[in-house]
Amino acid sequence: EQLDEVPIFAVQRREAEARWPGLSGRKLINETVRRMIHLMVIDLIEQTRANIAAEGVETLADVHAAPRLVAYSDALLPRLRALLAGLSIADRLPQVEIAVGEESTVFVFRNLLPFSAADEKQLAAFADAEGIQAWVQPAGPDSARPLHPANAQAPFYTLPEFGLRLDFRPTDFTQV
């Protein structure tokens, strides 16, 4: 029920219930999350295609010269803004960083004051709804830690042809 307060979850849940009227419990949640992931992946692909077309990218040199090409559309931003505005320390969150690994996307919320228990619940619900990990960073880069899920693993990239796996903290500068 708490997740129904997150708009993207509520919309996708209603669509899942309309498509599968008898679905309930864990199966309904799984279908809702699957639909949210699908929505985010399609959004990312379509926005990236549009960015590439708009920049006229045809070569690797064009990619290097272009501004950020891979991005979500502006549709995700209002949900993030709504989350941030609803937090008790909204005016004490100077930055949200996003780190992307092969199997995870991490939002790092830099907080100048501690989050309340209600804030932490909202961040966890947002993380579940958007299919991301929510980390908090109350001080310098080394203070960053997973909030939800609490046992979240740091992101990584692999180069299987070399047997290499690069684990990194979401506050590390990485460029691929």
Task: Report on this structure.
There is one protein chain. With 176 residues, the chain is an alpha+beta fold. It has helices spanning 7-19, 25-55, 60-65, 76-85, 117-130, and strands at 95-100, 105-110, 133-137, 145-148, 156-159, 164-167. The strands form two sheets. Strands 1-2-3-4 form a four-stranded mixed sheet, covered by helices on one side. A two-stranded antiparallel ribbon has the order 5-6. Helix 5 links the parallel strand 2 (105-110) and strand 3. The longest helix is centred in the N-terminal third of the chain and has 31 residues, at 25-55. It starts with 6 loop residues before the first helix and ends in a 9-residue tail after the last strand. The model has no long low-confidence stretch (mean pLDDT 85).
Strand coverage percent: 15-25%
Q: Quick check: average pLDDT?
A: 85
Round the Cα radius of gyration to an integer and report it.
Answer: 18 Å
Helix proportion: 40-55%
Gross morphology is globular
Question: Helices and strands, in N-to-C order?
Answer: HHHHEEHEEEE
Q: How is the biggest beta sheet arranged? A: 4 strands, mixed
Q: Cα distance, first to last residue?
A: 39 Å
Give structural attributes.
176 residues; 4-stranded mixed beta sheet; 16% strand; alpha+beta
Write the SSE topology.
Layout: H1 7-19, H2 25-55, H3 60-65, H4 76-85, E1 95-100, E2 105-110, H5 117-130, E3 133-137, E4 145-148, E5 156-159, E6 164-167
Parallel strand pairs: 2-3
Antiparallel strand pairs: 1-2, 3-4, 5-6
Helix pairs in contact: 1-2
Summarize the structure.
With 176 residues, this protein is an alpha+beta fold. The chain has five helices and six strands, in the order ααααββαββββ. It is globular, with a radius of gyration of 18 Å.
